[in-house]
TrEMBL record, chains A, B:
HTH marR-type domain residues: 17-147
Entries under Pfam families matching the protein: MarR_2
Lineage, uppermost ranks: Bacteria, Bacillati, Actinomycetota, Actinomycetes, Kitasatosporales
UniProt keyword list: DNA-binding, Transcription, Transcription regulation
Record's protein name: MarR family transcriptional regulator
Length: 147, 147
DNA sequence: TATTGTTATACTCTATAACTATA
DNA sequence: TATAGTTATAGAGTATAACAATA
């Protein structure tokens, strides 16, 4: 029997799906703008802000950091260098494996990261305009998208 | 009287809002990954892909292009240079103002942009997993967010 | 031998400032 | 004089390849 699934992968999406794609693109663009702007307010680049935020959750070896940021390990060296020069991050030896260097946020780094989170207006303000029911619907739809 | 508005700007967001913010961040990250990957499949950088996509909607003077991309006009010169070298974009004189150069996608540029759009899996596939009602709810919530 | 982090290199994107050709 | 586009310059992110230290 024919499947009732909406938007099969190899046919054209329906107008509703197209509009949602368009809207997601706009949200993504605004979110990014807002993130870069918030980072700049703290004299950080986007990459630096993302790395610092990751390290505020837990210290990570350089290699792992590269995996999380989805970039080459060689890039992480420079980003950590610049954050370390500002005292926001430090490199610690791993006693279990002397090849490994574990990057960790300093107290100052965590302070800056907190300020960064609080600067993120867009992710919060427009949400304030939604009713609780709308936010629940949005949450469920987003969960569904992320599988 | 106390306002019943959810998430006033200068207080901590409630857990629901926090989760939605988290989810939006993930969607944004995945969307971006997907976009960069699709661009790379066509030997384009993200910036080149965005500029080319804009020009497929309508030709634009360099200055306007910079405004749309939210970057300095001097950057647009290089991006258009690289796309022009590959025959995907061309610069046309503006008869009304000889200072202006209008950038336009070539037929080949439009072909590449079409392939690019079709490569954007993430924006479409996860949506296919949502019911029509969920997609409507998502659309309305996104519209609400964008004001 | 394999792995971790780094260095060296080259390219792109970015902003700033100075230049040119028009207006 | 003001504006459109460019050039020149410098900093940052990115990938690739080669390297040292360690496993």
């Amino acid at each position: 029997m024919a499947s009732p699934t909406p938007t099969p992968l190899n046919t054209r999406p329906d107008p509703l799906t197209l509009e949602v794609v368009e809207l997601i693109g706009e949200v993504v663009a605004r979110f990014h703008e807002d993130y870069e702007e918030a980072a700049a307010e703290h004299a950080l680049t986007g990459a630096q802000a993302r790395l610092l935020s990751l390290l505020c959750l837990e210290p990570l070896p350089m290699r792992r950091l590269a995996q999380r940021l989805k970039c080459e390990p060689s890039n992480v060296t420079g980003i950590v260098d610049r954050l370390e020069a500002r005292g926001l991050v430090e490199r610690r030896p791993d006693p279990a494996d002397r090849r490994v260097k574990v990057a960790a946020a300093t107290a100052e780094g965590r302070r800056v990261a907190r300020g960064l989170r609080e600067s993120l207006r867009f992710a919060r303000e427009p949400l304030a305009g939604l009713s609780e029911a709308e936010r629940v619907a949005l949450r469920d739809a987003l969960r569904g998208m992320l599988g």
